[in-house]
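pls design
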């Protein structure tokens, strides 16, 4: 999809998905909190929230209220 503009949240979701695929974020790993992710990735809190929602829809992460967001096995 080279040359086609993408939303920032999709770019961030793709970046995190690549980190999961490479093993940098293994199954069971907790993603940083939303505020920390704004600093790590240099994006707004809204972008982080939409990216996490996108990752949930892709089946790569699960969010547990008051616990955090964790990498899950997409084949499980």
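designed seq:
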């Amino acid at each position: 999809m080279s040359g086609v503009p993408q939303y920032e949240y999709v770019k961030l979701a793709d970046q995190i998905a690549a980190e999961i695929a490479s093993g940098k974020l293994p199954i069971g790993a907790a993603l940083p909190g939303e505020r920390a992710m704004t600093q790590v990735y240099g994006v707004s809190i809204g972008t982080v929230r939409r990216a996490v929602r996108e990752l949930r829809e892709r089946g790569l992460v699960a969010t547990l209220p008051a616990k955090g967001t964790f990498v899950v096995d997409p084949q499980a």
